[in-house]
Design goal:
single chain, alpha/beta, two-stranded antiparallel ribbon
């Protein structure tokens, strides 16, 4: 396991948002970190850290860089929480959008945010794809666990 993926190698340079997760994964790895209010699915601190680090690496590998803004369009869920934390771990800036906004509203404020990538769940994939096409955003990710095996088409 590389030092970046080893919870016992807590670095002072770790992003503040995920430093709590590293600490809890080290101190109480088997304790519940999050519970999905809709599905009842739960995740431990160790599992959450592993997923966050893996997704952060996926983001970095895809070219998401320090300071990049990434739009997120999806319902609250465990994968949503993992994505928010992974973006922080990767040094990117999450730009969560209200799923009740209309296409025209999103088409206006996403360019203002300067998004370099988009993340969407399957329920908002079509809208996110259309927006990404309009904005010329080519880096796209699926939020859903069952479909989260890479980039959305």
């Amino acid at each position: 396991m590389s030092p970046a993926h080893d919870p016992s190698s807590i670095a002072l340079s770790a992003p503040a948002v995920t430093s709590f997760l590293r600490r809890h994964a080290l101190e109480r790895p088997g304790h519940t970190a999050l519970v999905d209010g809709v599905t009842g699915e739960s995740i431990t601190y160790a599992e959450l850290l592993a997923q966050v680090l893996a997704q952060a690496e996926e983001f970095r590998t895809s070219g998401i860089a320090l300071g990049d803004r990434v739009g997120i369009l999806g319902a609250n869920s465990l994968p949503y929480a993992v994505s928010l934390l992974a973006l922080s771990e990767a040094g990117a800036i999450a730009v969560p959008k209200n799923t009740r906004l209309h296409h025209a509203e999103l088409a206006t404020n996403l360019p203002d945010a300067g998004v370099a990538a988009m993340i969407a769940d399957s329920g908002h994939r079509e809208l996110a794809t259309a927006l990404a096409d309009e904005l010329g955003v080519t880096r796209r990710f699926l939020l859903d666990v069952d479909a989260h095996d890479g980039r959305a088409s």
